[in-house]
Amino acid sequence: MKMNSKQSISLAIALVVIMLFTAACGNSASTGGQGGNNQQPASNASNNGGGDAPTQSADDKVVLGFSQVGAESGWRTANTDSIKASAEEWGFELKFSDAQQKQENQIKAIRSFIQQKVDVIAFSPVVESGWDTVLQEAKDAGIPVILTDRAVDSEDTSYYESFIGSDFVEEGRKAGRWLVEQYADATEPVNIVELQGTTGSAPAIDRKQGLEEAIQDNPNLQIIASQTGDFTRAKGKEVMQSFLQAHDDIDVLYAHNDDMGLGAIQAIEAAGLVPGEDIKIITVDAVKDGMIAASEGKINFIVECNPLLGPQLMQAVEDVLAGKEIDKRIVTEETTFTSEEAKAALPDRKY
Amino acid sequence: MMMRISKHHLFWPLTVLAGLFVFNLLYDPGFFAIRVQGGHLYGSLIDILNYGSPLILVAIGMTLVIATAGIDLSVGSIVAIAGAIACLLISRGEDQHSLALFAVAVAASIGIALVLGLWNGLLVSGIGIQPIVATLILMVTGRGIAQLVTGGQIITVSSDPYSFLGAGWFLMLPFSIFIVGFVFVIAVLMTRKTALGMFIESVGGNPTASRLAGIRSKSVLLAVYAFCAICAGIAGLLLSSNVSSADGNNAGLWYELDAILAVVIGGTSLAGGRFFLAGTVVGALIIQTLTTTIYTIGVPPEITLVVKAIVVFAVCLIQSESFRSTIVHRWKTRRYPAEREVTRGV
User: Fold this and answer.
1) Which residue has the higher pLDDT, A42 or A156?
2) Quick check: A180 pLDDT over 70?
3) Is B272 left (phi over 0), alpha (psi -120 to 50) or beta?
4) pTM of this prediction?
5) Per residue in B136-192, pLDDT tens?
């Protein structure tokens, strides 16, 4: 019994240590090697007697704080590289933080950007909701915010200057229109299975909605199963495998990104079916591995989702700081690829 | 006889697993269909074994750690690191299909897993840090290491020997099952046919008493953490080989929690001192069956986690002896308030 009370005390201590440890970790990750810098803004603020306006750093370099979702796929990597490269090109100082797919990390990162008084904050929100508080804090600090690639669902659009990124609903519609075209004279039901992205994320919600919109007029096109594959290859494979067990008449697979599609292709091959023929495959993104699969005929149709939005972001940052009005919505240019087009385009792809 | 069966430590885990199977049978009998496809068996049950094998491996290692009243939170990160290193080495090689390269990659991953396990063991036994804190260090940094190894990218490899590991077939069954079987047999032989198992239980039960009895508890601790890390390393190889790619960010994410859950469902107490390897295997199979069931019956992704949580909650309640006896007691005394009064008086 004595042992027990001792154990519970040590457990409590362990828990406290964990809390301290994880909190400290989040901080150090988000400030990204800016170790003792936390003190600096405070002293700055006292010098300015409050300091509402973002103070320009000593060397007058524009400081951009960017919080990335995480390295979930090849697409995200290309996106990160594009932002890092264009920041360098524009001569901006980039404070980059990786949220590892967690909203709380991203909120911490944005708070630390506010503390450090960066000039502009840009981020790709992990999920759509729950941003109002932290965006209000940025607004109060007078730091303009630009959203990239994913949107937030805040009612008040004054929280951010602009949203640069793809129109995910349109991507879903493009996929849907191709389907409708392919199966225009189908007389019997076409069974579609869907691999959704991370539950609650903007691309997952919008790509689902877009496809449903586009195919709703054709009653033959039916989504018979839809499940999340978390945008990862391993989950895509596992979920597709269970789809194949549960339904033996799948005609079309619609995957919200290439990686899940690539995982699903392995599952389809393991089931003794031919991807691209027995089951038509549509994916979104057009990353390198996906384009290779498309050129081999394993993916029938890829809707591009362009990750190279670094230059557009830097342009917007420059315009915002110069006091110019910029569009609330800047859509990236995107196209689609059939297998043949993928084969032709593959040699020139940058990512 | 009936009493003896229900007293067996595998009775409740197996009952739950059987319950899941019965549910699937009622929902869709096709769940049990197994056919021969491309020279090997194919069906949901095979999938459960195949996708469940990494979890079983991690959980076997975790069982021994928990038996010493410890815990290893770093297994998920070790899974990611092992997969990342193997894929990195293979992708750098000139001929990705070469067996020598494959052997080097596997040896390197398992070697590094061993080093990480010894690090954990050293923190726990040598320095005396609480296991939950000691392994938390590697849980956090390990994910970072895995991302450094992969450079934040998903590394794709095309190596026949490597993909055989997690996606290959042997005697019509997934090859991963044989790896799991091998590790399981080794673990059982080591712990039940030598004194090691007793040492582990004794260290978990009372470290001081076992030290006074002449057991080198530090060496025992070092050994179980090393073994647990090796299991996690092999699981990492299976996972990344299954999709022929390494994802430093997502591979093995939350595996430590699933593994702990599998161990607990299998009947091993978190307080240490006793462990049931077979129970752990059944526990891991329950988790994987539940996941597959959720996919098959088409639970909407928004509520998947809730469904999982409810089932796990129910399983834990059923397993708890005091909960069962409370229910039985209530049932027996439900209509006789007077009688209850009397017994209370006595």
Assistant:
1) A156
2) yes
3) left
4) 0.79
5) 999 999 988 998 898 877 888 888 899 998 888 898 899 999 999 999 999 999 999
Cα–Cα distance for residue pair A48/A52, rounded to 1 Å? 9
Buried b (16+ CB within 10 A) or exposed e, A20-31: eeeeebbeebbb
- Inter-residue contact A233 to B32 (CB < 8 Å): no
Going from the C-alpha of B72 to that of each of A220, A226, B206, the distances in angstroms are 52, 35, 19
- Judge whether A242 lies within some domain: yes
For A242, nearest residue in chain B (alpha carbons): B296
Write out chain B residues lying below 8 Å of A237, CB-based: 242-243
Q: For chain B, give the percent of residues with pLDDT over 70.
A: 95
DSSP A281-325: EEEEE--HHHHHHHHTTSSSEEEE-----HHHHHHHHHHHHTT--
Closest Cβ opposite residue A73 in set B30, B130, B154: B154
The answer to whether A294 touches A339, Cβ cutoff 8 Å, is yes
Residues A188, A110, single domain; the answer is: no
Which site among B35, B130, B238, B243 would you substitute to test the A interface, given the most A Cβ atoms closer than 10 Å to its Cβ? B243
Q: How far is B111 from chain A (nearest CA, A)?
A: 24
Q: Position of tokens 């940058």?
A: A350
DSSP state of B251: T
pLDDT of A90 above 70: yes
CB contact under 8 A, B250 and A77: no
Judge if A239 and A286 occupy the same domain: yes
What are the b/e assignments for B14-50, b being 16+ CB within 10 Å? bebbebbeebbeeebeebeeeeeeeebbbbbbbbbbb
H/E stretch holding A209: helix A202-215
Distances (CA, A) of A213 to A177, A183, A194: 9, 16, 14
Report the distance separating Cα B23 and Cα A247, nearest Å. Answer: 18
Write the pLDDT tens digit of every residue in A52-62.
Answer: 444 444 457 89
Q: B42-298: which CATH architecture?
A: Orthogonal Bundle (1.10)
Residue at A350 is within a domain:
no
A149 and A85 belong to one structural domain:
yes
Query: What phi, psi does B15 have (nearest 5°)?
Result: -60, -45
The pLDDT score that the predictor gives to residue A25 is 44
The parent domain of residue A236 ranges over 168-305
Same domain, A290 and A318: no
Same domain for A161 and A175, yes or no, is no
The rounded mean pLDDT for chain B is 89
Q: Are B318 and B12 in contact (CB under 8 A)?
A: yes
B121 band by pLDDT with thresholds 50, 70 and 90: very high
* Structural domain count of chain A: 2
Cα separation, A228 vs A212, whole angstroms: 16
Rounded to whole angstroms, the Cα distance separating B59 from B54 reads: 9
Nearest CB to A259; choose among B152, B154, B244: B154
Q: Could you list the beta-strand ranges (E) of chain B.
A: 35-37, 40-42, 154-156, 169-170, 173-174, 245-247
SS3 at position A194 = strand
Sheet holding A252-255, edge to edge: A221-228, A190-196, A252-255, A280-285, A301-304, A336-338
Q: Which two tokens stand for residue A99?
A: 């949220």
- What is the average pLDDT value for chain A, to the nearest integer? 82
The residue ranges of every structural domain in chain B are 42-298, 305-332
Regarding whether A296 and A180 lie in a shared domain, the answer is: yes
CATH number for the domain including A94?
3.40.50.2300
Which of A176, A166, A155, A282 shows the shortest CA–CA distance to A221? A176
